[in-house]
Write a sequence for this structure.
């Protein structure tokens, strides 16, 4: 179980890079390239909201009945890549748990 790292460019006016780390235990860590903002979320709190050329990575709050906690705009291909990384990490974790039983 290895952490997978990617760098994406935000699809907004700033075009900041965001470094993403997908942790197979169910966590995604994100950090903007200027190191001013950091985000973390569990897989089950994330959603991908598609809108034309931009896909928003949205984190819902666990405590506030699913209210939007934060969101970041990604290019469609980057969002798709991240979605696959998360799916792969979930499968890897499930396989590990199945092997333990």
């Amino acid at each position: 179980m290895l952490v997978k790292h990617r760098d994406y460019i935000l699809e907004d006016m700033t075009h900041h890079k965001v470094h993403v780390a997908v942790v197979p235990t169910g966590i995604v860590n994100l950090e903007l390239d200027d190191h001013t903002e950091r985000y973390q979320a569990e897989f089950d709190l994330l959603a991908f909201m598609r809108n034309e050329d931009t896909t928003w990575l949205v984190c819902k709050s666990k405590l506030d009945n699913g209210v939007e906690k934060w969101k970041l705009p990604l290019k469609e291909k980057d969002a798709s890549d991240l979605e696959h990384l998360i799916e792969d990490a979930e499968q890897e974790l499930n396989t590990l748990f199945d092997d333990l039983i």
User: Anything to note?
Assistant: The chain is about 25% helix and 45% strand. The chain has a mean pLDDT of 90.
